[in-house]
């Protein structure tokens, strides 16, 4: 069967493209083994990353200036928004699409074959995400949802690397992530930024409970729990791939949802997304991931202290500039200059691919 657009996978990336293609008047077929699966992860983004067309109801909370802790406290003068996952999924309506509960077996150019034997032709967008592999660095996290009243004494924390989670200095580090989920609840999550292998959920739970005890935040043991595990590398730009499968996961943060939402119209229009500048930025970000994996655990907080001390435009360029090559280079150069000489040597070795050190660290949040 033929359609203007065939979308494989109905996570946030695939659903966003389907939704925008329908708004554009295109005929759409979407294929997913579980098309009615309810999304459960917490998604968040910088406010300036989100597209204008996004339903405001999809935003659960806005923080004008979140805090980051490394060696010092840093105020990040950039609005941060936590999405209402259920509202986001509802807002990306698929009215008018042909929705198939099936598994894609092969994608060959403009033809898709499924496990039930059906064949579909059209322009194909493969948004099936990434499978886990021991060769791929992952982000892991373990969180609990508590009453919002706790935020009166504990601010929103984009990253908190303070060493009160019970980990020894030589152990792989993790940080605390604290965000409001709406008017009544807040997520406290211990996160391994990126690791090969990443810290286990059991280890992160132990660290989170230790950290909360140190901060006099009580747990009853009945709190709702969030577990996170996904690859931060392995996506390949081009050939109709989109979202995490298409290389849109930021390898040094794990964020991808906002980028996918913002890029959906570009994909629907058939415009070129992976310009030479965008590919160069992606290569630099992969080098950044190698740097994170190579850092000795004691130096991770020093690295992020230097990053969060950068001017906000440079932070924005590195975190969000999909094709901002000049800004990305400027941010990496400024960060390198601000680091102690001994860390510079580690980073040079990692960026050039000369070292064998592997570390563990996190954040997008499954963003």
How is the topology of this model organized?
Layout: E1 2-8, H1 12-23, E2 28-32, E3 44-46, E4 59-63, E5 67-69, E6 73-75, E7 80-83, H2 85-91, E8 98-101, E9 104-108, E10 111-114, E11 119-126, E12 138-147, E13 157-160, E14 175-180, E15 185-195, H3 201-214, E16 225-231, H4 257-268, H5 276-294, H6 300-308, H7 312-320, H8 325-338, H9 341-351
Parallel strand pairs: 1-2, 1-11, 2-8, 5-13
Antiparallel strand pairs: 3-7, 4-7, 5-6, 9-10, 10-11, 12-15, 12-16, 13-14, 14-15
Would you give an account of this structure?
- By secondary structure, this protein is α+β, with helices and mostly antiparallel strands.
- The chain is 29% helix and 24% strand.
- The chain has nine helices and 16 strands.
- It has a seven-stranded mixed beta sheet with strand order 6-5-13-14-15-12-16, with helices on both faces. Strands 8-2-1-11-10-9 form a six-stranded mixed beta sheet, covered by helices on one side.
- The longest helix has 19 residues, at 276-294.
- The chain is globular.
- Mean pLDDT is 92; it is low at 354-367.
Strand arrangement within the widest β-sheet reads 6-5-13-14-15-12-16
Q: Which structural class matches the secondary elements?
A: alpha+beta
Question: What proportion of the residues form beta strands (DSSP E)?
Answer: 15-25%
Low-confidence stretches: 354-367
Shape: globular
Give the topology string: H per helix, E per strand: EHEEEEEEHEEEEEEEEHEHHHHHH
Radius of gyration: 20 Å
How large is the count of helical segments?
9
Q: What is the rounded distance between the termini? A: 33 Å
Kindly state the mean pLDDT as a whole number? 92
Helix amount: 25-40%
Biggest sheet layout: 7 strands, mixed
Tally of DSSP β-strands: 16
């Amino acid at each position: 069967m033929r359609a203007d657009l065939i979308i494989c996978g109905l996570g946030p990336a695939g659903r966003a493209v389907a939704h925008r293609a329908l708004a554009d008047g295109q005929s759409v077929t979407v294929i997913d083994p579980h098309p009615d699966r309810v999304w459960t992860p917490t998604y968040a983004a910088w406010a300036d990353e989100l597209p204008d067309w996004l339903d405001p109801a999809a935003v659960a909370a806005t923080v004008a200036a979140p805090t980051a802790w490394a060696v010092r406290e840093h105020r990040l003068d950039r609005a941060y928004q936590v999405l209402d996952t259920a509202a986001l999924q509802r807002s990306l309506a698929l009215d008018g699409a042909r929705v198939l509960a099936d598994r894609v077996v092969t994608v060959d150019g403009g033809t898709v074959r499924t496990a039930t034997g059906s064949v579909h032709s059209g322009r194909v967008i493969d948004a099936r995400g990434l499978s886990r592999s021991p060769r791929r660095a992952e982000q892991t996290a373990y969180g609990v949802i508590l009453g919002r009243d706790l935020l009166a004494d504990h601010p929103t924390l984009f990253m908190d690397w303070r060493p009160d989670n019970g980990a020894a200095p030589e152990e792989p580090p993790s940080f605390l992530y604290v965000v409001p989920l709406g008017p009544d609840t807040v997520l406290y999550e211990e996160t391994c930024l990126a690791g090969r292998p990443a810290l286990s959920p059991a280890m992160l739970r132990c660290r989170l409970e230790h950290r909360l005890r140190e901060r006099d935040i009580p747990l009853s043991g009945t709190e709702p729990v969030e577990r996170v595990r996904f690859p931060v590398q392995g996506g390949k730009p081009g050939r109709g791939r989109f979202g995490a499968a298409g290389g849109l996961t930021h390898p040094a943060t794990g964020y991808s949802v906002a980028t996918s939402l913002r890029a959906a119209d570009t994909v629907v229009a058939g415009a070129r997304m992976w310009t030479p500048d965008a590919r160069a930025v992606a290569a630099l970000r992969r080098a950044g991931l190698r740097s994170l994996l190579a850092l000795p655990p004691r130096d991770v907080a020093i690295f992020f202290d230097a990053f969060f001390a950068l001017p906000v435009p440079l932070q924005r360029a590195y975190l969000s500039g999909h094709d901002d090559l000049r800004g990305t280079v400027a941010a990496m150069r400024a960060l390198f200059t601000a680091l102690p000489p001994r860390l510079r040597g580690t980073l040079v070795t990692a960026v050039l691919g000369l070292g064998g050190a592997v570390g563990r660290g996190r954040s997008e949040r499954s963003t």
